[in-house]
Design brief:
75% of the residues lie in helices and 0% in strands. The protein is mainly alpha-helical. About 6% of the residues have low confidence.
């Protein structure tokens, strides 16, 4: 229902997607929704993205790059069990007593299964930097064109508030990353200085988010017929769809906030050790 773009939190600049997993669903309606949307598998993809991001962080921030100790820390931070637990707990709080039936009916239908399979395929493919750049380039080529498919995807993005919500999530995660660096003793910054630094990245974060989101959706929904896409957009506009979207952002943003703070602490510990 919503998409959370991969966080890029390196100080100089810096998705969620659903997927259907066949098999028995849990009796609890909240767990049933998350199982139907394949949270364990998307978390596994996010771990893969995170491990690659850890290598980038080490190149940018640690003299000598990634050590075995750094890789062990990053692997622990991106532990899938902990990540999933955070998502489920925050999702449950935000979803509250909303009716799960329309959501489950959709994501277990043929249309929902097709959509989430396409989303999963695209998300996996975009772990590759070359595929991601191709997807971004495809969006840039259509950005100012009168393209009907892009127009419908814009409707989907607007219905789910994908740009603003992802930007806010990325900036909050960036704030947590700086907090980790400061609490870990790598830098001395006041909260006001951290906020100024994070807000200075807003334009870059928004531009990067827009390219990633639209590139991803154009890649994922290329094979999707118009009627199925319209059905998906319509679900997004329902009260249950909006509640689902908000709960998904709450879940995955809480996960990324925890990860970002832990990465800041880990980076600080490595930087201090190298200074000894």
């Amino acid at each position: 229902m919503s998409l959370i773009a991969p966080r890029r939190l390196v100080m100089t600049g810096l998705l969620w997607l659903g997927l259907m997993i066949p098999g028995a669903l849990r009796a609890d309606p909240v767990d049933a929704i998350l199982d139907a949307m394949g949270v364990p598998e998307i978390v596994a993809i996010m771990r893969e993205e995170g491990l690659l991001y850890g290598e980038d962080m080490a190149r940018d921030m640690l003299p000598g790059g990634a050590s075995d100790g750094w890789r062990a820390l990053v692997s622990e931070i991106y532990g899938t069990e902990r990540m999933e637990d955070v998502v489920r707990a925050a999702f449950r709080r935000e979803f509250g007593n909303a009716d799960p039936t329309p959501v489950l009916d959709f994501f277990t239908s043929q249309a929902g299964t097709q959509i989430v399979a396409l989303e999963l395929s695209a998300r996996r493919a975009m772990v590759d930097d070359d595929v991601e750049e191709e997807a971004r380039a495809a969006y840039r080529a259509l950005q100012d064109a009168d393209d009907p498919r892009l127009a419908r995807i814009r409707d989907f993005v607007a219905a789910n508030d994908l740009i603003d919500a992802n930007v806010v999530g990325a900036m909050n995660a960036s704030y947590q990353f700086y907090r980790g660096l400061v609490d870990g003793g790598a830098f001395s910054m006041t909260e006001e200085e951290i906020l100024i630094e994070v807000w200075s990245q807003e334009d870059q974060t928004r531009s990067d988010t827009e390219e990633w989101v639209y590139g991803f959706l154009l890649l994922a929904y290329g094979p999707l017929d118009e009627e199925t896409l319209e059905t998906y957009i319509a679900l997004s506009a329902t009260p249950e769809g909006r509640r689902l979207n908000g709960a998904l952002f709450a879940g995955f943003n809480a996960m990324y906030d925890n990860i970002s703070y832990a990465l800041g602490l880990a980076a600080a510990s490595q930087m201090k050790a190298l200074d000894l």
